[in-house]
Structures are given as structure tokens and as C-alpha cells.
What we know:
This protein has helices spanning 10-31, 40-54, 71-78, 80-98, 106-131, 136-165, 172-204, 218-222; strands at residues 58-61, 64-66. With 233 residues, it is mostly helical. A hairpin with a 2-residue loop joins strand 1 and strand 2 (64-66).
Amino acid sequence: xxxxxxxxxxxxxxxxxxxxxxxxxxxxxxxxxxxxxxxxxxxxxxxxxxxxxxxxxxxxxxxxxxxxxxxxxxxxxxxxxxxxxxxxxxxxxxxxxxxxxxxxxxxxxxxxxxxxxxxxxxxxxxxxxxxxxxxxxxxxxxxxxxxxxxxxxxxxxxxxxxxxxxxxxxxxxxxxxxxxxxxxxxxxxxxxxxxxxxxxxxxxxxxxxxxxxxxxxxxxxxxxxxxxxxxxx
Length: 233
């Protein structure tokens, strides 16, 4: 999913950079409502996990491979605004230290993986969570579907950018067929990883999952202090 330097023309790259900068600015304001002394460390751990997981590729089809994007997973864990910031930091470090995507394509990659993937993944999660049972299984199903859809939609967004400012002499239809076909398969891997990670966190600390804060373990409820009774006589 990482778009390399020089794959889109300069005006398109600048435009996506402006969109990404605006999205990050809005996310900085929104993250203030999501982060506190309890959730801030989880945001750092989530960003570190996504960074490491994106370095691991899994086979998709003959000659192709894919890796976790992590937009939906991060949004469900720490909230959508904080997820945008986490994804931006991950992409920035990858571009600067590993030339993964490149600096001139940073705005494009942030728009695709930090804005589109997070927005689609979390939006789908919220829609499904509203109609599914408010249980651990309902959370996992909603997150899995959101993770799956976030990948091909981000791929389609790239196809749209390529149609506007692609510099390679390749028909847009060919690019669309290749991108969507491969990323539908990658989306399946994204869903499996998302469900596995969320399932593990929900088992241990469901109260730390932003999208499932209403789930509590019996032990958590038992540790709540008993209400103080007052004598009304």
C-alpha cells in the first residue's frame, strides 16, 4: 500500500500533503478528548505494534505479498483521532529511516492509510457495533469487517489519485483491477490480524479498548468500591 516517490505527479502529491496536514491538525484537537494518563501509554504501544507489524509481509498471490495497515485496529483500540496520529508517526518514521514510501509521498500515504483506512475502518465498526449485540463477539465482528473494508477502499482511493496524477504509462483500469483484486485478499489478512489482536486485548483489559469500553470483566466490577450508605435518621 505504500506509494513510492515519483509515482504521482507533483501537484497531486502536494494536494494530498495538504489534505494530510489538515487531517492531522484536526486529529490533534480530537485526540485531546481521547487521551489521558491511562490511554496515552496504550497509544504508544499501539503505534509501536503497527510499526513492527507493517514490516512483516504475508503471501497473498503468486509474486505478491501484503502487510497489515492497522488503521481499523488502531482506531478501535485508542480512538479514531489518536489513530490518525499513530498512523502518521508510523509512516513518518518509515519514510525517514527506511525510505518506505518516501518523503514526497508521505502526504499520499498518510491520506490513504492514516485518513481513509482509519475513517472507513472505524466508521464501519461504529455502524455495525450499533446493531450487533454489545458483547465481545459483536465487537470482534464489527472490527473485523471494518478492517477488511478499509484495505480495498484505501486501494480504490489510490486508484482515484492515480487517475488524476499518475505518471506511469499504465491504463487506470489495469491499475484498478490489480489494486482492488490484491487488496481484497490483503483485507482478509488485515481482518484476521485485527480480530486476533483485539481478542487478546479484550480478554485481558476490555476497559482499555476505546471501541468496547462498555465491556467489563467480573473482576473489574468486583474491585469497584461499594457505595457509602448514609444514615437518614
